Amino acid sequence: MEDALSVPPLFSGNFAFFFDLDGTLAGIKPHPDDVCVPDDVLARLALLAEMNDGALALISGRSIAELERLARPYNFPLAGVHGAERRDINGQTERVTLPENVLLPLERELRQGVSTLGGVELEAKGMAFALHYRQAPQHEDAVFALAKKMVTRFPQLAMQPGKCVVELKPSGIHKGAAIEAFLKTPPFSGRKPVFVGDDLTDEHGFIVVNRLGGVSIKVGAGATQAKWRLGSVSDVHQWLERIADYQQQEQRALTNRRDDYESLSRSI
Ligand SMILES: O=P(O)(O)OC[C@H]1O[C@H](O[C@H]2O[C@H](CO)[C@@H](O)[C@H](O)[C@H]2O)[C@H](O)[C@@H](O)[C@@H]1O
């Protein structure tokens, strides 16, 4: 069936940019530690941020500590763990936590459960846990059953499925809320959001961005709430290059028009 969603257009103006990381800026790898964002892509993100008064953030399921490492040497605003952590443009960080009487038994039970499922890996992110079954797809059902058991036992938790992963995160936390929180403060406030993402966790972001009249962009195949589509991570990289170039040209043209106007006013 033909894809009804097209490649997003190029635009400039009052926009705030939000990018997911895994599967969007960086290709999916066998293990989370194998991932890196190419230097030229980071440099282009920094250029786009600069041209939009710093209104560009990474919105990821990864922790802020991981995002800092992957985005080095740039200090973009960040939302980590699907929005449970948020670092603003001034470096101020907010974090949602889980009470110890949830966190301790939860981690103990997850470690115990995973120890019986060879190849399944537990990624601990402070207030959330990812159960990775990419290396052991035969355990998918058991991983989902373990996650469901934990959500039933602890109503403070929500399940977040993703690419060969099921995560347990604090309930009420999602990428849409993180984007809305950024949009309440400078330099994001008063701008239309643009969000690019590839996975189920990003659908929460698309719903909010659509409601706010922004630009929602799904990466890769699959049903989505997004209004536009880019086929792959390398298509994201190309689009990023094109929109950064386009905005640079627009800004140069604007500066030239201003200079012409000023020299004309001086000559009258
Ligand atoms: O919101 P994202 O930036 O897309 O992060 C989502 C999760 O990404 C990581 O796991 C995924 O990527 C790994 C590396 O490509 C892959 O091996 C794994 O199967 C994927 O699920 C990360 O480890 C998680 O913490 C993020 O929530």
From TrEMBL:
Superkingdom of the organism of origin: Bacteria
InterPro entries hit by this protein: HAD-like_sf, HAD-SF_hydro_IIB, HAD_sf, OTSB-like, Trehalose_PPase
Molecular-function GO term, any one: trehalose-phosphatase activity
Cofactor: Mg(2+)
Keywords per UniProt: Hydrolase, Magnesium, Metal-binding
Pathway: Glycan biosynthesis; trehalose biosynthesis
Pfam families: Trehalose_PPase (PF02358)
Functional description taken from the UniProt entry: Removes the phosphate from trehalose 6-phosphate to produce free trehalose.
Protein family (similarity comment): Belongs to the trehalose phosphatase family.
Protein's UniProt name: Trehalose 6-phosphate phosphatase
Originating organism: Kosakonia oryzendophytica
